[in-house]
Amino acid sequence: MSRLVVVSNRVASPTETKGSAGGLAVGVFGALKDSGGVWFGWSGDVVSDSVANQGPKLEQDGAVTFATVGLPKKDYDQYYRGFSNATLWPVFHYRNDLAVYDRDEYAGYRRVNSWLAHRAIKLLQPDDVIWVHDYHLIPFGEALRSEGVTNRMGFFLHIPFPSPQILLNIPPHEELVKSLCCYDVVGFQTPGDQTAFHDYIVRHAHGKASPDGEVEAFGRKLKTGVYRIGIFPDEIAEQATRGEARQDVMDLKQSLEGRKLIMSVDRLDYSKGLVERFKAFEHFLEKSPEWRGNVTLVQIAPPTRSDVDTYQQIRHNLEYEAGRINGRYSGLDYTPIRYMNQRYDRWKLMSLFRESQIGLVTPLRDGMNLVAKEYVAAQNPDDPGVLVLSQFAGAADEMTGALLVNPHDIVGMSEAIGRALSMPLAERRERYEANMVMLRKYDLGVWRDSFLADLRGVKLNKRPASSK
Ligand code: ADQ
């Protein structure tokens, strides 16, 4: 089997791939171990120009090489903080209102992608299969092609692909889609994302797209597909039970004094719908006085991208809302919302999920949302909690046992909380079983293996695309 080269914005460290990190790192590393290969990307460090140009730092773990580079401050600002996270992220999550566009940042985004491609070329062998991940790296494949690289190249988009009317808001939309067409396989999380891409190809790129995923545009043929990212449910269940007896979890349980627990865990991001969720919980307490003092919402949200303006704003809003609601409903021995900003060990999060009666996962828009899946897998099958899930998370397609909500509908979410809290055991078990069937059917191994099988099997274009 030919070697695999994985390219992603951030590279997990060799220790993270051993299980302490999220499922994605473990899943990608599994594929790399099977075929041997390289994991290439940014180290997460901002460094001087001279250090950045020293060449990738290499670490070996068996047949896998971890190759990382640092980024100079200007590149970090334009590529990462700028175009990736202040333009692409908001627009792809349907938040044009929060997006800014700056030509220099876009130029920086393309320049850094070309620079990264140059660094990667030295590590490539002729029949390596290259798998590029996510919105930071859309032009990476095109940059390799323009250097004459003809290897099999696939791209997987972890976030939603917006409908054309939304995408048109990004001035260089056509260049971005053309860049995507330089890959041999482009993978999406849901059929809706794939359809949005096909719509753009047909209506705005004058190309062809068939329902089986064959696309022709910009002089290239490629395959698109839906590959739902999943988790390894047994691994999560094991983490959840391993943690059960640990002191921290026992302490939390004791401090709840028999109150019901609602768990929410997200990166602190405006796409995750946290303000709306807090308001729904407030509405629930307002309309259900019998639950005041008897149910606690634990929101864990470690800050990310805190140097992007909109992220500072969401943090302030949340602190304000949590304070306001707690001021309204707290008692001497009761705090309705416990809002925490730190990261937690995975076993601890999973065992907290297992202790809780509701997993409240209500993003305004989400590519998939792995927390929803982890919540279900962590439950005790004999006495499972209920997943309350946004209809706008990619996971909503599969989690047929969840209570689906519209995260803009505060009253609807509040009603779902009430329904979940008083749901009979038989219904909870039924819903849990339905979700588990899907979690097993589309686990992380299926995601990874089906994408790679398509990439290894796809018919290649005869000539590389022109870089013009
Ligand atoms: P994210 O937006 O990061 O991922 P998600 O899919 O929920 O969202 O993954 C978050 C991961 O981080 C989960 O594994 C979760 O357990 C972990 N995590 C969150 N908070 C944590 C904390 N406080 N401590 C420790 N771990 C924490 C992007 C897309 C998603 C898509 C994934 C994967 O935005 O839509 O599902 O990629 O493709």
Automatic annotation (TrEMBL):
Signal peptide: none annotated. One of its GO terms (biological process) is trehalose biosynthetic process. Pfam families: Glyco_transf_20 (PF00982). InterPro entries: Glyco_trans_20 (IPR001830), Trehalose_OtsA (IPR012766). Keywords: Glycosyltransferase, Transferase. It is an enzyme of class 2 (transferase). It comes from the Bacteria. The keyword GTP-binding does not apply. Pathway: Glycan biosynthesis; trehalose biosynthesis. Its EC number is 2.4.1.15. GO terms for molecular function: alpha,alpha-trehalose-phosphate synthase (UDP-forming) activity. It catalyses: D-glucose 6-phosphate + UDP-alpha-D-glucose = alpha,alpha-trehalose 6-phosphate + UDP + H(+). Belongs to the glycosyltransferase 20 family. Probably involved in the osmoprotection via the biosynthesis of trehalose. Catalyzes the transfer of glucose from UDP-alpha-D-glucose (UDP-Glc) to D-glucose 6-phosphate (Glc-6-P) to form trehalose-6-phosphate. Acts with retention of the anomeric configuration of the UDP-sugar donor. Homotetramer. This is Trehalose-6-phosphate synthase.
